[in-house]
Amino acid sequence: MTPFALRDGELHAERVPLASIAERYGTPCYVYSRAALEGAWRALDDALAGLPHLVCYAMKANPNLAVLDVFARLGSGFDIVSGGELARVVAAGGDPGKTVFSGVGKTVAEMRQALDAGILCFNVESEAELERLDAVARERGRVAPVSFRVNPDVDPRTHPYISTGLKESKFGVAHGDALALYRRAAGMAGVAIRGIDIHIGSQITELAPYREAARKVLDLVDRLAGEGIRLGHVDLGGGLGVRYRDETPVPISEYAALLRGLFAGRSETLVLEPGRYLVADAGVLLTRVEYLKPGPAKHFAIVDAAMNDLLRPALYDAWHGVEPVRPRPGAPMRWEIVGPVCESADFLARDRALDLAAGDLLAIRTAGAYAMAMSSNYNARPRAPEVMVDGDRVHLVRRRETAAEIHAAESTLPR
Question: Which of 29, 56, 121, 342 is catalytic?
Answer without folding.
Answer: 342
